[in-house]
Automatic annotation (TrEMBL):
Subunit structure: Homodimer.
Function: Catalyzes the decarboxylation of four acetate groups of uroporphyrinogen-III to yield coproporphyrinogen-III.
Pfam families: URO-D
Signal peptide positions on this chain: none
Domain of life of the native organism: Bacteria
Protein name: Uroporphyrinogen decarboxylase
InterPro entries: UROD/MetE-like_sf (IPR038071), Uroporphyrinogen_deCO2ase_HemE (IPR006361), Uroporphyrinogen_deCOase (IPR000257)
Classification lineage: Bacteria, Bacillati, Actinomycetota, Actinomycetes, Propionibacteriales
Record: residues binding substrate: 34-38, 83, 158, 213, 326
Amino acid sequence: MTASPAPHPGLADSAFLKAARGEPVPHTPVWYMRQAGRSLPEYLRVREGVGMLESCMDPALTVEITLQPVRRYGVDAAIFFSDIVLPLKAVGVDLDIVPGVGPVVAHPVRTLADVEAIPDLTPDHVDFTTASVRALVAELGATPLIGFAGAPFTVASYLVEGGPSKEHAKTKAMMFGAPDVWDALMRKIGGIAAAFLEVQVAAGASAVQLFDSWAGALTPQDYAEHVLPHSAAVLERAGRLGVPRTHFGVGTGALLPLMAEAGADVVGVDWRTPLADGIRAVGDRSVQGNLDPTLVFAPTEVMLARAAEVVEAGKAARGHVFNLGHGVIPSTDPAQLERLTEFVQQLPR
Ligand code: 1CP
C-alpha cells in the first residue's frame, strides 16, 4: 500500500481548522452536516442502482460523493461520505441501510454473548476507507476532510433496537436493567469508533466529528453516568491524533456542559438552543452550528437574516464553525445552500 500523502501546506490556513482551534479566522467557516446526499441531483444520479453501504465501500463513488458538495457550495470542509453503522458492517455485523428507513440490524444485541460476538475493528476491515480518504485528501488540497464516527450511545441504539427508534426504550432498558451488558456494549462500540477515527486520520483526515445524534434522549444524570465515560474514552483516543475533535448531538441543550467535558475541542449546538446559551454552556471551547435546517425553506432574505444572527452570536465563542443545527433535509433546494454559504463566508469578522 502507498503511504498517506503529506498534509497540503494550505491546510495551515484553513478557516475551519483555525476556528476549531480557537485561532483568528479570515471568515466564518461553513460546512453542512449531511451536505452530501439526497438534496443533490448529482448524488441521486451516481447512487442510481447502488446500495448505500455498497457506495460507502466503493472508493471511486465515495470520493465523488464527498467532493460533490465541495464543488457546488465551496464549503470550508468536506465530510467523509460514510455512515455511523459502516464500521459495524465492516467487522461483520449483519445489517443494512434500508431506503426510506435507515440502518436495520438483523439480530439485535440482547446479551453479553451477543456483544462478545462482535469483533473489534482493525484497519484491514476498512481498507476501502483508507483508500478513499487518501484519494480524497489528494483531491481536496487545502480543503480539510472531516472524518467521523458514531458515538457509543447512538450506535448502541441501532444495535439494541434493531433499527431507528424514537423512544430508545429497549436501549434504555438495557442501560438501566443490565449494566454489565450495557458497559460491555458501550466499550465494544467505543473501541470500534476510536479505531475507525484512527484509520481516517492516519489516511489524511484533518479533523474528526463524533456524532451522538440521539444523546438528547437522556437526562444529564443518565448521560453522565452511563454514556459520558464511553464517549470520553473515544475522544481521548482521538485526542492523541492531534486533530480537532467535534462532539455533536440533537436536543442536547441540557447536556452541552457534559458533552464539552467529554473532551471536545468543538461542541455542536442544535438549533433549539440559542447559540449564545450554547457558548455559555461549553465554556472555553469552540462551537458549531446552528441555523434551523428548515430555514432553507423560508424566503432567501429571511434565511440570510437569521444566518447573520447566528454568525453575530458566534463571535462570543472561542471559535465558531457555521453549520445547520442538524443535517440537510433531503428536500432542500441546493440553490439556497449556495446562497447561504456565499453569504456567511463574506460577512465581516
Ligand atoms: O441512500 C441514501 O441516500 C440514504 C441516506 C443516508 C445518507 C446520505 C444514510 C442512511 N446515511 C447517509 C450518509 C451519512 N450518514 C453521512 C455522510 C453524508 C454527509 O454528512 O454529507 C453522515 C455524516 C451520516 C451519519 C449518520 N447516519 C448519523 C449521524 C448524523 C445525523 O444525521 O444525526 C445517523 C444518526 C445515521 C444513521 C442513518 N443513516 C441513514 C439514515 C437515514 C439514518 C438515520 C435513521 C434514523 O432516523 O434513525
